[in-house]
Amino acid sequence: MVFFEWKDEYELGLPDLDLQHTMIVNMLNELHAAMESGQQIVTAEKTLEKMLLYVEEHFATEEQAMRDNGFPGLDAHILEHEIFRGKVHALHERHVQGADVASHELIAILMGWLKNHIAEVDQEFGAFVCQKSEEAKKAFFQ
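Above: the chain sequence. Below: its structure as tokens.
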């Protein structure tokens, strides 16, 4: 059984970003499955590594897309990314210092990011691009 399902309401309508966002759901499901099978320590470590890559690669992609489209909320969005990036790096630093990072802690962080950022804040950008596209179509066909 899948722990968390990707929903259409999370989609921005921007395929590259949507695909990257599904990585969060994949990490959630992997962590949950690992907890059920008793493999949570190894999986938590791997997930933490994936999260480090995600915050660098995905945020760079998303922020560039916002720049390319002239998104007016870019600065506020970057600030949210920086806060989340800081959380992920702090967790990683804790792990490097020898502390266990609990799977349930990672699940809570990922779930919060999915529900509060991807499902809400990122939607503003998706709506902006969609509106911009509609305006361009109208202008083209007039």
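The CA atoms of residues 9 and 119 lie 7 Å apart.
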